[in-house]
Amino acid sequence: MVITHAHWDHFLGMNEFNTTVIVNSLTHQKMDVWRKYSYDDRSLQEYVESNKITSQCMEIIQQEIPERDQFKLSSPDLVFEESLTVDLGNKVCILERIRSTHTDDSTIVYVPDDKTIFLGDSVYGTTTDAIFHYKASQLLPMIEDIQKYDANHFLLGHESICDLDEMNVFWNQLTSCNRAVKSISLDHAIECFEQNNLRSPQGDELFFLKAFVNDQILISK
Ligand SMILES: [Zn+2]
Ligand SMILES: [Zn+2]
């Protein structure tokens, strides 16, 4: 089992799997913090008050792990640096830590036989100081890191499976929105988008424009 990045919704259930757990070294480092946590109600409440975890995270832990006074997050079995090739006998899997707009510890898994790539949450944006944003600086490097794999099936952490056409639509939306954002003004970004594309932004595009504007806002602080 590969843990794609150190977000609690992706690893807190790891103890349930009686199998080899693989992570990259940065994910390992980030998960160490959670390995030192205690999970009784009082400790959880303290972590919420000191902003170490969110109250939503606490509630989900309380629901999902009813017996947790002795709960300790286990350690991974295999830690790699940049990349790792795993031969499962009948299937080769390539693991790589890629540049990502979501976290700096994002691992993807590529299965060449099936032209399938597991992206985890790597292509999503991120939240900093309660502001959701897309890291413009990581967008093109990330797309480059993913597009070098010859894949037809893309599995994202919180989406149903995408094919190559759907991914290309997604990349185009992200890159055209990124191109339109040059300042902390959403109005300017929308104007610029309309000039570049000869139409107004639709659906997700408005969401992405806001996220790239938010990135500019965070950078300017
Ligand atoms: Zn995540
Ligand atoms: Zn996630």
UniProtKB/TrEMBL annotation:
SUPFAM superfamilies, sorted: Metallo-hydrolase/oxidoreductase
Superkingdom of origin organism: Bacteria
Pfam families, per database record: Lactamase_B
InterPro entries: Metallo-B-lactamas, NDM-1-like, RibonucZ/Hydroxyglut_hydro
Catalysed reactions listed for this entry: 3',5'-cyclic UMP + H2O = UMP + H(+); 3',5'-cyclic CMP + H2O = CMP + H(+)
Domain Metallo-beta-lactamase: 2-158
Gene3D superfamilies: Ribonuclease Z/Hydroxyacylglutathione hydrolase-like
Function: Counteracts the endogenous Pycsar antiviral defense system. Phosphodiesterase that enables metal-dependent hydrolysis of host cyclic nucleotide Pycsar defense signals such as cCMP and cUMP.
PANTHER family: ACYL-COENZYME A THIOESTERASE MBLAC2, METALLO-BETA-LACTAMASE DOMAIN-CONTAINING
The protein's name in its UniProt record: MBL fold metallo-hydrolase
Species in which this protein is naturally found: Paenibacillus shunpengii
